Amino acid sequence: MKKLGLVISILLSLALRSQQIVPLDEKSYIDSLQNVVRLKTDNQSKAAAYFLLSNYYRNTDSTLSKKHLETARSLGKSNPFISAQYFYYQGQYYADRDKEKAAASYLKGTELLSKFKNKESEFLQSRSWFGYGIAQKNKEGYPFLIKIMLEKSIPLIAKYENSRNLGFEYTQLALMFTYNAEFKKAENYNNKALEILEKNAPASSELFFTYLNIASNFFYQAKGDMGKSFLDKAEKLIQPYPDSSSNSYYFYNKTLYYITKQKNEETLSAIEKGLYYTKKFQQNLLTQMFYVHKYDILKKQKKYTEARDLLKSILKEKTLVIDANNRKTIYLQLSSINEVMGNTKEALAWDRYHSKLSDSLNAANIKLEINKLEAKYNTAEKERKIASLNAEKKQKELEVSRKNYYLLGLSLVSFFFISLAISLSTLYRKNKKLSEQKEINLQQKITDIKQKEELTLTKAILEGEERERERIAKDLHDGLGGMLAGVKINFSTWSSNNLVSEEHEDFYKILEQLDRSVSELRHIARNLMPESLLNFGLETALRDLCDFYTRKNLTIDFQPINIHKELSLSTQLHIYRIIQELLANAVKHSGANSILLQCSQAENTFFITIEDNGRGFVKDTIKPTSMGFQNIRNRVNYLLGKMEINSDNEGTNINIELNTYEI
């Protein structure tokens, strides 16, 4: 099922484009809207119909869509509510053309619509926030979109518990979790949508797409039989409407089902039926998705030329590969299939495109993370200045208050000499206490400065180490790795044309050794700068690290508990290096056959526990200058953490507690 990885992101993009689903009986729907604009006399009804017509044609006929949009606006010039609606539908029109214009329109729509307190306004506000999150997705990422959904979009309509709009919002949220491989969460929100829609909208297009989303959630887990029952329910809803554009989505999910069953001919049949609808309704992105699956089948059938030409047509058409991650995957597939065909030069060329784009995407991700950290730092700095000003204000008020008390004592000195003595004594004690407190504060400031200097030094050392690791990893992967890969491809091509495998077994053994050497070199490069950490986060990277150290006589049980994805890249990298060193020490020195690694997080505290059943060691025998433990202690100290080591002849247990807030 790994080959569905590219398609699942496209499926999400496609579903998120369809924010306002039209009925399955599209002809009756369009006819009814056209009757409204032809027969109705009031401008509000006509404007609403023109807005819906604009939204319907926005992907198939942009000129007609724009015309209907502006007609609706002109009808509502004197109506503030129609004018507010205009910006939502303008955002819809720009959604697939200009993300920045779409985002600006959606935000303007939320601002104007919030002035009206009615059900329709709240539904449109919810959709506007949803549209804004989609428009910003490529810039801010999926966590931002999910946050918009949970904090802005869904709360606006959550009070309308039986609304089909709420059911649809839950379906869209489930689809985001499916994309992020959080299938259980996706199932939970799909079930919420199902409960609303089966009861309150049993023949709706919203329910149809909910059935398809539930089915696809199972298909991406390779649970074809569980998804099939929901696919059948969707089929019953769409069967009466053979002319509906929604048929293309049904056949797409049917394609996924046959892929899980590895039925190639049935898959091709479903693809061709789906392509009929996508071409009829100009659904360009979905057309390219079908071609991706067709390529996979052709490759399995060893029809390499057809498969390669199909990939090139996808690249040339551009709809699918606007997304850089999809383009990277297409490059990799073109390199792979050309290598199989013996086209060495072309395979190397596509491999270079893939490597260059991978580096570019990694750099973009790091830049985005740096920008987020900078914004976070600026916000914290402003808050610190405000807090400082407030403290200064309170201090001045306290000084004024003290002066008032002092003047009051002086005015009473002639009458109450004893009271004056008592007041002076009290003032002396207060001044003495204040002096002591100032001394304590001064010492604390000195301590803080020393700690900051130590942290700055540690940070510089650690960052220098990581930069050097990254440089070496790039040199190995892009330089020596590329050269060895080229040698391997050249040998493969030459041997397939000049040698007989049965007569030259020694040569092929050497070729296998070369192949293992290339793999080992790439393992070393990934170990120096873990690509899975940059692309998929800490939990996935740690799981890959455990798999890397697992041996035939050694099992590693990795237990992640509530690891937050919002951790900064710098903090994730420090945690990764600590655990990498701990695992390396355990594998190298303990002689254990079982290792338990548990990582958990509670708010800003990250816990690491590693246990093995090896021979143990005497704690005091660890040399202070030992490179491995010194690196661990440096990173633990930098994260203001603490480490506890317990070891005897039955094994070793190490517990580490780290602070994950920004230093």
TrEMBL record:
It catalyses: ATP + protein L-histidine = ADP + protein N-phospho-L-histidine. This is histidine kinase. InterPro entries: HATPase_C_sf (IPR036890), HATPase_dom (IPR003594), His_kinase_dom (IPR005467), Sensor_HK_TwoCompSys (IPR050482), Sig_transdc_His_kin_sub3_dim/P (IPR011712), TPR-like_helical_dom_sf (IPR011990). Residues 471-662 form the Histidine kinase domain. Its EC number is 2.7.13.3. Keywords: ATP-binding, Coiled coil, Kinase, Membrane, Nucleotide-binding, Phosphoprotein, Transferase, Transmembrane, Transmembrane helix, Two-component regulatory system. Gene3D superfamilies: 1.20.5.1930, Histidine kinase-like ATPase, C-terminal domain (3.30.565.10), Tetratricopeptide repeat domain (1.25.40.10). It is an enzyme of class 2 (transferase). The chain crosses the membrane at residues 405-428. The keyword DNA repair does not apply. Pfam families: HATPase_c, HisKA_3. SUPFAM superfamilies: ATPase domain of HSP90 chaperone/DNA topoisomerase II/histidine kinase, TPR-like. SMART domains: HATPase_c (SM00387). The keyword Coiled coil applies. Residues 363-399 form a coiled coil.
